[in-house]
Amino acid sequence: MKKHISVLSILVLLIISTQQSQAQGSFWGRNKVAKKINRDMKSLNKEGLNERKMGSADELHTAIYLAEQFAKIGLDSLQSPAYLQTINVPTLRMAQPKTMLTISGRVFTLFSNFYPISQSSNNGKYVGPAVNVAFGIEDPGLDRADYTGKDVAGKAVIINLALPADQKSAVRYSAWEALEDRVAYAKGRGAKAILFYSSDANFIPEGKLAKVLENSNIPILFVTQDLSDMTDPIVDLNVDIMLISEMTQNVIGKINNNAKTTVLITTHHDNTYTTYEDLRNNSRSVASFLALANEIKSNPKKFGHNDYVFASFTGYENNKIGASHLLNSSLAKSFTLNYILSIDEFTNLDSNHQILTLSGIGSSPAFTTISKLIIPKKINTFTIQNNLESSSESTIYYDNFFPVLSATAQSKYTADSKRAKPGRHEAKMVCFLTDILADLDMKSGEYKKEGVPEGAPEKVLTTIPFTRILK
Asked: How does pLDDT run across 54-94, given as a tens digit for each residue?
């Protein structure tokens, strides 16, 4: 009899354990997640991976390690080489001595009398007439017709970068204030080169060339002297800009459920920090990101309504280059996005007072049907915010009209490394996020941009009703 009771007790415990593991992560489930996080943290902190500056050998080795983990988890590769999305990052643009300019036989000196600007092509020649189009503004509503009656197709144009107004009425021309807008319009009229000058010292472009790969694809120079009296001069110019770039990479994998919508989950693996503890914090975020990928892959019944794309970015400290590159790539355009979850920062978690913060802006069909979830007792505080930190990678998603949740975790007090158990506290956060994502997966749908109220800024998004996530 005792033997039968013992067997029955074991079966009951197994059933209870299984049920618990399906919500918040059971002790056994969390322990398994914690062990994986601990292993990955140790690997990410070891020699050869611990100075992950963008473009460095350590960063490359880290990307390869992440690709190997993606393969072990069973994610599909969307790139060649496997999982790696390579990026050429400019490190230097500098005008070379062959850059030259003559106007009607008069020789101008590079840097003293003229210089190429950031929007210029890196190489380009033009010999022929230049048409003076005053301020380069064509706008009937402002009663400006600087291009009317002038054939600029296949020719160079001369443009005054200042605005045709005094300070009181300058606001009328604010739509034309940006240099890029006048470049785009001149190109649209067929201009093959642009010579800018300015009658107002407030409208002189910077001489330092931006480190970018994309440009206007036509030579553009700024001349430091007044060109207003030149009507139809003959221009001979050459632009020669040296571009030096280095190769870096995002790491991208996918769970393909053949769903109509995609959830994008992101973090970043590059690191420019100087202290070992800062490095460990970045490793915590990356290891937690890998653990979350493994949990979602291991539970197909809970996560079958969306495809899941996992992207670890480079260039976090370099204007979020990796995130921008993915969002502007053909790969991202192939997604029908539901929403984005960004694991921004899992910092030094200890046993004192852990705080999980979920913040974000946007509107997604998934966000409107989130049920109430039970807060794990050992997560002392769960806070919600209806905004994003300006330095956060998530702001790039918002700027591109994508709904985004940003998860951060920290301890209220200074961590005591002797008391902290590596991976255990991170595992609680990961299991809780897994539950939130499983709940979100119940409602999938294509994200549609909200209608913009008349007179409102373009980037208006409906705030996520976070109070419906947890109470």
From this structure: 888 888 899 999 999 999 999 999 877 799 999 888 889 99
The residues that bridge with 339 in the sheet, in sequence order, are: 263
Strands (E) in 269-335, as ranges, are 307-313
Question: How far is Cα 59 from Cα 53, in angstroms, rounded to an integer?
Answer: 6
Q: Residues 353, 441: contact at Cβ < 8 Å?
A: no
- Number of domains observed in the structure of the chain: 2
Query: Are 335 and 265 in contact, with CB atoms under 8 Å apart?
Result: no
Strands (DSSP E) along 270-395, which ranges?
A: 307-313, 337-346, 354-361, 381-385
> Using CA atoms, how far apart are residues 131 and 186, in angstroms rounded to an integer?
11
Give exposure, 345-381, as e/b (b: 16+ Cβ within 10 Å). Answer: bbbbbbeeebbbbbbbbbbbbbbeebeebeebeebee
Backbone phi, then psi, for 74, in 5-degree steps?
A: 105, 20
How many secondary structure helices (H) and strands (E) does the chain include?
A: 9, 18
Q: What would the two tokens of residue 98 be?
A: 């062959």
In the 8-state DSSP scheme, what is residue 169?
T
Same domain for 334 and 202, yes or no, is no
- Among 131-145, 195-209, 314-328, 355-369, which stretch is predicted with the lowest mean pLDDT? 355-369
**Phi/psi of residue 127, each to 5°?**
-135, 125
* pLDDT for position 351: 57
What is residue 338's three-state secondary structure? strand
Dihedral, CA of residue 105, residue 110, residue 113 and residue 117, to nearest 10: 110
Say how far apart CA 242 and CA 193 lie, in whole Å.
19
- pLDDT classification of 259: cutoffs 50, 70, 90: very high
Cβ-contact 287, 242 below 8 angstroms: no
Q: Is the domain of 284 the same as that of 386?
A: yes
CATH of residue 182's domain is: 3.50.30
- The DSSP code for 418 is T
Residue of higher predicted confidence among 336 and 352: 336
* In a domain? residue 96: no
Give the contacts of 310 (CB within 8 A, at least 6 positions apart).
70, 75, 252, 253, 254, 255, 265, 266, 289, 293
List the domain range (segments joined by +) for residue 75: 22-90+247-468
How far apart CA 113 and CA 218 sit, in angstroms, is 20
Q: For residues 51 and 105, give the distance between their C-alpha atoms in angstroms, rounded to a whole number.
A: 54
Handedness of CA 378, 380, 385, 391 (dihedral sign): negative
**Which of 61-65, 281-285, 408-412, 413-417 is the most confident on average?**
61-65
Closest CA to 62 of 81, 45, 49: 49
